[in-house]
Design a protein that fits this description.
The complex is a heterotrimer of chains A (about 350), B (about 475) and C (about 200). Chain B has helices at about 1-5, 10-25, 35-55, 70-95, 105-120, 125-145, 150-180, 185-195, 200-220, 225-235, 235-245, 245-260, 265-290, 295-315, 320-345, 360-365, 365-380, 385-400, 405-430, 445-460, 465-475, and strands spanning about 60, 65-70. Chain B is mainly α and about 475 residues long. Chain B has one domain (about 1-479). Chain C has two domains: about 1-80 and about 90-115, Four Helix Bundle (Hemerythrin (Met), subunit A), CATH 1.20.120.1200; about 125-160. Chain C contains nine helices and no strands.
Chain lengths: ~350, ~475, ~200
């Protein structure tokens, strides 16, 4: 690998670093977008099966080309700007929605070495980035000059800000266990098989994190911001074509982000649940050892939970959503943080590290 | 760590009890609100015990110099705790009649007290500021607590906006002092200013802003605009709180910052204080004559009194500081009694805050007329009340330092001031009552208010014990 | 010129421009958004200085939470800025005088010579999250806790001043609603099948 890169590096000189970073970004974002495309397909399939239907199966073999057909359709649709809409903000809004969702990926480690930026305060950076996603929604609602869109935006803003607290507290519990904000070190702290994953000592936090994640991404059953039955489609009711597709992309990218974070923070990231599998190497390469495979499996599991929940639960009423966030999750997380803080002072401390 | 925690034990006690009462109050039905009241009183009593039990002559610095636990802080905290406790007793019936007898009232009062206590034992600009904000924020909210009339909201708004401005000025000044000396620790700043380090221009600018901030909190001219409106607009119970304990905290603030940290700039701030004291005494006493509302009158009287107190400060020696402390304590005790009587006379739907309401009080109740007489004599500085001795001590300190002309002005303005204090005495004893309704009050409030009034006389006759305490506090303090 | 210096100037220019826009644009929502941009750029500049914890916290707290609520309120309120601006000219002389005074003071202070404090010193080695944590929880623990109490007071005061339980208002209790079991609402009846006559 180094032998291949070295001549190019010499050629580019000082411009090497930006170019190389750009290459890494592209190498991450392209699979991500394809992942989003197939997540939508998978979602329709899974929900179809759960409802004893078949799901999309017309385009391509087993319907596998369906996402591309959808994309093509959306690309050729006209973008209608509503009368009285604020043009600039109307178009900036989808970009503000997708920007943070992609930017957060910069610090996510896919394996021990595969990460764009290995920064110390990685976890904090991710919380900061995801907290900015709400601007896209608020601005979309406001700039559309439509009362349904505006209602959706207000709901969404309040909901995301509320659940961010519970989510943040759940992450505080993780960093208490890991003694670090660096995602790579957090995974390294869970080394030694499935029994050492943080999901066990932090089981309530894991549940809170997943549920808050669903609420943060405005997914069912917390999709009050869309709420088809009451406010048509909420914040993106006035969007069509590519502008709508960008919102869609942002939502699914945030979902995948939540899934990868849940895997990294609670489920041991790329670590294999059975460290013995690392020894089953064929020519120095262990196919079932620590690596991308396991991260993928764990992400798929978390994403399945998202879809499963969507197919199972009816939508919450708004006051119920707020109650769950403020009166159940936040006290629960605070109590649990206090509990592990206390336990860490006792001889049970190793169980929490 | 243990000694560090010992140094802030009173603060911890107040904070913990405030939190406990905050939660316990949720489970108390409105009819049994007195449970919260007694819990608060118990907390205050327990804190008084802690302050007394942990008092020691040698000063202790804790939390890397953020906290100073010395005699000065102990004495001031003791008086502040007593003042708050009396305030709650006096205003109990008043609060009940106006729907203000609520848990938040007690909790916010405790938080305000906590802020004062933090200020009293502050060892750094950081703690001074945080204590100040803690106190002010609670007081803003307390002023606005009565939501069904517009006067309190207006008063709270004025208090808040001007208070925020003053905090801003204070912070600006502190930032300049930090820029010049490289520290916010009062001790280090004192070292730097005494050692002549740091940029003098920068320090002088910082000093101007800090003195402005202090002047605002004391409510002296030209930073007095908020005082009459807030005293008048706030519910009398809250006026009582604002007019008493915070003055003690402001005293500590002034002493630790000016006489402590900025000792090296003594000459500069003396000049500023002369102007502040002079203007306050003249304006306060003159404008008070024109008031028909007793709360407003007492507000202007506060302005004048704080100006008088500053005279002790600008003597800038231990005598002067002890005299100023004595004056502050005397003023707080007198204020407690004066507002206590106003609270006593008020009832549901009737505020008793007009000077006319005191007409013929002697016929209605000779005893309360006598107490009010003592209060007014003390405020006017008539011997042998406490106020006389306080004024005397301050004047003596100022004259000893060569401020003879200022002392002459102070005496003259006091004579002017005596006019409006004695006018109330005249109304009480020589006029006919316009309102014959009987005076009803709870037994505990009656007993305490009587004791408070009598104390003004007794301490005036035997001032040496209180004076001794004040001298001890100032000489054994760490500033 | 170093690459990082160039980046600094770019960010600084954006920051100054955004800050100017905050006070000049007519639409309050736009002003709030420019403020978001200036916070974000300020965070980027801090990041250049190596203060990663502070930079990210600035984004997290101000951009991610405070400004969202700000926008929330501004969008809901119908602020008419033209009304607010009408008296602008009459206040201009006073405002300009105060501004000039502050400027003059700054110039005096800066011209008068170097301030005593000197430079901010170098960054501590290692993660500055840990360094800050140590400072906050060891050296400055007392003021830090006091600041927390201050926030508590703010919460208590805000609730005490705004919360009114209206009499006769109908409210739902989602807690009670969630606790409802099937048995509370549904009764299963045994009904023997009836034979059709005839």
């Amino acid at each position: 690998m180094d032998a291949l890169i070295a001549p190019v590096r010499d050629l580019l000189g000082p411009a090497w670093l930006p170019v190389w970073t750009l290459v890494k970004i592209v190498a991450l974002v392209v699979p991500l977008i394809i992942g989003v495309a197939y997540l939508t397909f998978w979602e329709r399939k899974v929900i179809g099966w759960m409802q004893v239907r078949i799901g999309p199966n017309r385009v391509g073999p087993w319907g596998l080309l369906q996402p591309f057909a959808d994309t093509a359709k959306l690309m050729f649709k006209e973008i209608v700007v509503p009368t009285g809409a604020n043009r600039y903000l109307f178009f900036i809004a989808p970009m503000l929605a997708i920007g943070p969702a992609v930017a957060a990926w910069a610090v996510v480690p896919l394996t021990d070495t595969l990460v764009i930026a290995d920064i110390n305060a990685g976890l904090l950076y991710i919380i900061a980035m995801t907290s900015m996603g709400v601007y896209g929604i608020i601005l979309a609602g406001w700039a559309s000059n439509s009362k349904y869109a505006f209602l959706g935006a207000l709901r969404s803003a309040a909901q995301i800000v509320s659940y961010e607290l519970a989510m943040g507290f759940a992450l505080v519990a993780v960093l208490m266990c890991a003694n670090s904000l660096n995602l790579r070190e957090i995974v390294a702290g869970q080394e030694g098989g499935a029994a050492h994953w943080y999901v066990w000592p932090l089981l309530p936090m894991f549940v809170v994190y997943i549920v808050s994640g669903i609420a943060e991404t405005n997914r069912h059953p917390f999709d009050l911001a869309e709420g088809e039955s009451e406010i048509v489609a909420g914040f993106h009711v006035e969007y069509s074509g590519v502008a709508f597709a960008v919102f869609f992309l942002a939502e699914y990218m945030s979902m995948i982000l939540i899934a990868v974070l849940a895997s990294v923070l609670f489920l041991g990231g790329w670590l294999s649940p059975f460290p013995q599998l690392n020894d089953l190497a064929i020519g120095g390469f262990a196919p079932l050892g620590d690596g991308l495979l396991w991260l993928g499996v764990k992400m798929a599991f978390v994403l399945l939970i998202f879809l499963w929940v969507r197919a199972t639960f009816p939508r919450y009423r708004y006051d119920q959503v707020m109650r769950l966030g403020w009166k159940v999750f936040i006290p629960l997380t605070l109590v649990w943080i206090g509990f592990i803080g206390t336990m860490m002072q006792t001889r049970f401390a190793p169980m929490f590290h | 760590m243990k000694t560090e925690l010992n140094a802030i034990l009173p603060e911890i006690a107040v904070l913990v009890s405030a939190c406990v009462i905050l939660i316990a109050d949720l489970f108390v039905p409105q009819a049994k609100r007195h449970v919260s009241f007694w819990l608060t009183q118990f907390a205050l009593l327990a804190t008084i015990w802690i302050v007394v039990a942990t008092a020691q002559v040698a000063p202790v610095r804790a939390f890397s110099g953020m906290v100073v636990d010395d005699m000065l802080s102990d004495v001031l905290k003791l008086f502040a705790l007593v003042a708050v406790s009396l305030m709650l007793f006096y205003s109990r019936a008043y609060l009940m009649a106006r729907g203000l007898f609520r848990g938040e009232m007690f909790v916010l009062t405790l938080f305000a007290l906590l802020g004062m206590m933090v200020m009293m034992s502050a060892g750094s600009f950081l703690t001074v500021y945080l204590g100040l904000e803690l106190m002010s924020l609670s007081l803003y909210a307390l002023v606005a607590m009565q939501r069904d009339s517009s006067a309190p909201s207006e008063a709270a708004m004025k208090y808040f906006v001007l208070g925020a401005l003053a905090s801003g000025m204070l912070l600006y000044g502190v930032s300049m002092i930090y820029g010049a000396t490289g520290s916010v620790d009062l001790d280090r700043v004192a070292e730097a200013t005494l050692g002549g380090q740091g940029n003098r221009t920068l320090l002088a600018f910082g000093l101007v802003f800090v003195v402005s901030g202090i002047a605002f909190k004391l409510g002296v001219v030209p930073y007095h605009m908020w005082v009459p409106d807030v005293y008048h607009g706030a519910p009398t119970a809250v006026t009582l709180l604002i007019g008493t304990a915070p003055k003690l905290a402001a005293f500590a603030f002034t002493l630790r910052v000016l006489a402590g940290a900025l000792k090296g700039l003594e000459f500069d701030w003396q000049g500023m204080l002369v102007v502040l004291a002079l203007l306050s005494m003249v304006l306060g006493n003159l404008v008070a004559i024109a008031q028909s509302n007793i709360k407003r009158m007492l507000a202007y009287s506060t302005i004048a009194n704080m100006g008088f107190m500053l005279m002790g400060f600008l003597a800038a020696d231990l005598n002067g500081y002890s005299a100023a402390l004595f004056y502050t304590v005397a003023y707080v005790l007198t204020s407690l009694a004066s507002f206590g009587v106003v609270l006593l006379l008020s009832r549901e739907g009737f505020e008793a805050d007009l000077i006319e309401d005191f007409r013929g009080l002697n016929r209605r109740s000779p005893w309360w007329a006598f107490i009010m007489l003592l209060v007014m004599f003390s405020l006017a500085g008539v011997p042998p009340t406490l106020g006389f001795y306080a004024k005397f001590a301050v004047l003596e300190a100022a004259v000893n330092q060569g401020f003879v002309w200022l002392a002459v002005v102070a005496v003259l303005t006091s004579v002017v001031g005596a006019f409006y204090y004695l006018r109330i005495v005249k109304l009480m004893y020589f006029d006919d009552p316009v309102d014959d309704s009987p005076i009803v009050a709870r037994g505990d409030a009656r007993a305490l208010l009587s004791a408070n009034g009598i104390a003004l006389l007794v301490l005036g006759i035997l001032p040496q014990y209180l004076m001794g305490l004040c001298t001890l506090a100032v000489t054994q303090s760490y500033f | 010129m170093l690459f990082s210096t160039a980046v600094f100037y770019v960010f600084a220019a954006i920051l100054v421009f955004a800050a100017l826009c905050v006070i000049t644009v007519r639409n309050p929502v736009h002003a709030a958004l420019w403020l978001v941009l200036s916070f974000f750029t300020a965070a980027a500049i801090w990041l250049l200085l190596g203060a990663e914890f502070l930079a990210i916290t600035l984004v997290l707290v101000y951009v991610g939470a405070v400004m969202v609520l700000f926008l929330f309120v501004i969008m809901m309120l119908d602020v008419n800025f033209e009304d607010l601006r009408r008296d602008f000219r009459s206040y201009l002389p006073v405002g300009a005088a105060v501004g000039l005074l502050v400027l003059l003071e700054m110039v005096l202070v800066i011209v008068a010579g170097t301030a005593g404090a000197g430079s901010a010193g170098s960054l501590p080695a290692g993660s500055n999250t840990q360094a800050l944590g140590r400072l906050l929880y060891v050296d400055y623990v007392y003021p830090f806790e006091l600041a927390a109490v201050l926030l508590l007071v703010a919460i208590v005061a805000a609730i005490a001043l705004t919360y009114r339980r209206r009499r006769g208002a109908k409210v739902q209790d989602p807690g009670a609603q969630v606790k409802v079991r099937r048995e509370d609402r549904v009764r299963l009846l045994e009904m023997p099948a009836e034979k059709r006559d005839g």
